[in-house]
Amino acid sequence: ALGSDTGGSTRNPAAHCGVVGLKPTYGLISRHGLIPLVNSMDVPGILTRCVDDAAVLLGSLAGHDPKDSTTIQDDFKPFELPNLTDVSKLSIGIPKEYHAPGLSSEILALWSKAADLFKNAGAKVVEVSLPHTRYSIVCYHVLCTAEVASNMARFDGLEYGHRSDMKDSTESMYAATRREGFNDVVRGRILSGNYFLLKQNHEKYFVKAQKVRRLIANDFVKVFRSGVDILLTPTTLSDAAPYTEFIQEDNRTRSAQDDILTQAANMAGLPAINVPTALSERGLPVGLQFIGRSFQEKQLLTVAKWFEKQVQFPVIQLEEVKRHDSGVFQHRKSASFS
């Protein structure tokens, strides 16, 4: 399936559903046809059962598109993933800043176990620092809302989309159309974005956030230049929240928590992939994230495929789920990793 990934919206659901979720490098896949949310971060994502399938889809989708000026100019050559047997030449980075507040002990243990898996196989595993990561979620929300406000301005009830029946005046029709067509979350983002873009606030918020974004991207550049090939991080803070817990928080709080470990890759335009790793104590899927260098999808997917083979995550059978088999997760636990 296809997703869209602005701050983690392909990798987060992939982690919660036990499937592979790939966010390619920004500009590798055309955004033509994707409803723009945050133009500078939006990337079409790929959801598959296994890493090999993600590589196949990427080969079909990637490359230059004359209808999207942000896509790469060079032709993209599809590739077949090799079976990696020797990881001794790999350097895996463990960013200490991803040990974020709210990270469950279960995810932390899996993250540590995955690092040990690489280390025991001969790979070099090193702790690295991305010092500006702690500012990234705030920076992301400033830039996100600013671009949302700009992009949503097109939905005015005249050109296309919903139009209100209000006919008192053009202004009242505009207002009613946008009140009816946008929910509270979108309206909140538009209001925040327009506030950050006000003349008196532009330098203080928007410009400063752009500068912080550059520092975040430079952190990744420095780490990769130091010899690290791939970064290994959690994808989510915990497994999926039960509905009774989910409704205790508003959407804004929930989305801020969900994106905290994923949105930095979007800010830097880097490729990242969620690989399903194990089942939690509640029997729910948990994934880990790999982040690679720009346009080095082949290396990223090759490492992800090796990891996938090691953990032997139990493939969720949709037929069993459809039969409402409550034991579908419990009786298929991965003996090798969870």
From TrEMBL:
Cited InterPro entries: Amidase, Amidase_dom, AS_sf
GO cellular component: glutamyl-tRNA(Gln) amidotransferase complex; mitochondrion
Keywords for this protein: Transferase
The keyword Ligase appears for this protein: no
All copies of domain Amidase, residue ranges: 1-301
One Pfam entry name: Amidase
Keyword presence, Disulfide bond: no
GO molecular function ontology, one term from the record: transferase activity
Segments passing through the bilayer: none
Any one GO BP annotation for this protein: mitochondrial translation
Listed name of the protein: GATA amidotransferase
UniProt source species: Tichodroma muraria
Gene designation per UniProt: Qrsl1
